[in-house]
Design brief:
- Helix 10 (266-278) packs antiparallel against helix 11 (284-313).
- The protein has a 7-stranded mixed β-sheet, with helices on both faces.
- Strand 1, helix 4 (66-72) and strand 2 (78-83) form a beta-alpha-beta unit.
- By secondary structure, it is α/β, with parallel strands linked by helices.
- The protein has helices spanning 8-20, 24-29, 32-48, 66-72, 86-95, 133-143, 166-182, 202-212, 234-246, 266-278, 284-313, and strands at residues 54-58, 78-83, 100-103, 116-122, 144-155, 214-221, 254-260.
- The structure holds S-adenosylmethionine.
- S-adenosylmethionine is lined by residues 10, 13, 17, 59-61, 64-65, 83-85, 88, 105-106, 122-124, 127-128.
């Protein structure tokens, strides 16, 4: 297999992920609370995906989300996977031998320009150094079709219930220790992920996405249940998910977001028209009449097609 050129910081990440590959699905996807988070994320993805879409799962790991993709996305979509870790890809290929899995980096996605309608980055950008986020987003932009979508989720700091500090955070920590102790739950030994792994401040993260694409949807998730993520005991799982629903995910330890390439509105058309009116070669009258037609066309397109976009997004 051809080795890809990667940065020093990515080399360490690849070593860590290679070590985790054999137990990634078992430890991070199968525990019921985490499985429920993954299902909620893929249901979120399904709101945006249209029949026939070409999808890239960037940072796909061991194809951990693919059983959910297969059951919740339209049957005729095509899905390709890219990951930094060869060992993760070995596990992915063993489960989906017919699928296109390629070794690659966020900084050098091994696909051509405009190849995908949707790029999914699930819980993976938080593994990289902040300085690599903007160039990674530019790669996503490159491989997306003209009006393609990036759909992702990442862990958050600062919008978490526990970030209120004091007794409130204390209560949640005690709840966690109580539940883990009584249900005999163990934390997993984890290799040191290095200094680049970090949760995001939601506003800063979304602002970074917005510099390259246009964020069109955001939802916060899992305010309480992540505290109880490793528990298998059915009663605890039920309670953990109940706590999230009780405050309706108004805050969360995770963000789901969708961001579109080349997102234009009638207001954008109008802005340009106003500027064009200041700098034209046609007569003022001719140009004005034409621009009024263009503005009207933009409004009609927006009005007529918004309802069909809403339909895709259902
Ligand atoms: C926590 S796992 C998430 C896997 C999967 N998307 C999910 O939601 O379960 C993060 C994955 O991102 C990959 N990754 C981290 N940095 C990367 C980079 N610079 N380029 C490509 N993949 C990367 C890791 O190898 C790992 O498999």
């Amino acid at each position: 297999m051809t080795r890809i050129d990667i940065q020093e910081s990515e080399r360490r990440e690849r070593e860590v992920e290679d070590l985790m590959a054999h137990r990634y699905n078992r430890d991070y996807h199968n525990p019921p609370v985490m499985a429920s988070h993954s299902k909620a994320f893929v249901e979120y993805v399904a709101r945006f995906v249209r029949p026939g879409d070409r999808i890239l799962d960037l940072g796909c790991a061991s194809a951990s989300l693919w059983p959910l993709f297969k059951s919740l996305l339209p049957a005729d979509v095509t899905i390709a996977g890219v990951d930094l870790s060869p060992k993760m890809l070995d596990v992915a290929r063993a489960s989906y031998p017919e699928s296109d899995f390629r070794e690659g980096s966020f900084l050098a996605v091994p696909h051509g320009p405009g190849e995908f309608d949707v790029v999914i980055v699930s819980s993976a950008f938080h593994h990289i150094n902040d300085s690599l986020l903007a160039p990674s987003l530019k790669e996503v932009h490159r491989v997306l079709d003209e009006h393609g979508l990036l759909i992702g989720r990442e862990p958050l700091m600062s919008e978490r219930l526990s970030d209120r500090g004091g007794w409130f955070a204390g209560a949640l920590m005690h709840l966690r220790h109580l539940a883990y102790r009584l249900s005999g739950t163990r934390e997993y030994p984890e290799p040191d992920p290095g200094p680049d792994h970090h949760a995001y401040h939601p506003k800063e993260f979304l602002r970074s996405i917005d510099t390259v694409l246009t964020v069109v949807d955001v939802e916060f998730r899992n305010p309480a249940s992540l505290f109880l993520a490793r528990v298998h005991h059915p009663a605890v799982v039920k309670l953990a998910l109940h706590l999230d629903d009780f405050i309706k995910h108004r805050e969360g330890q995770e963000v789901h977001y969708a961001a579109r390439k080349n997102f234009s509105t009638a207001a954008d058309v109008n802005d340009c028209i106003e500027k064009a009116l200041l700098d034209n070669k046609l007569s003022e009258e001719e140009l004005k009449a034409f621009m009024v037609q263009v503005a009207a066309a933009a409004r009609v397109i927006e009005r007529e097609l918004q309802s069909s976009e809403a339909q895709w997004n259902r």
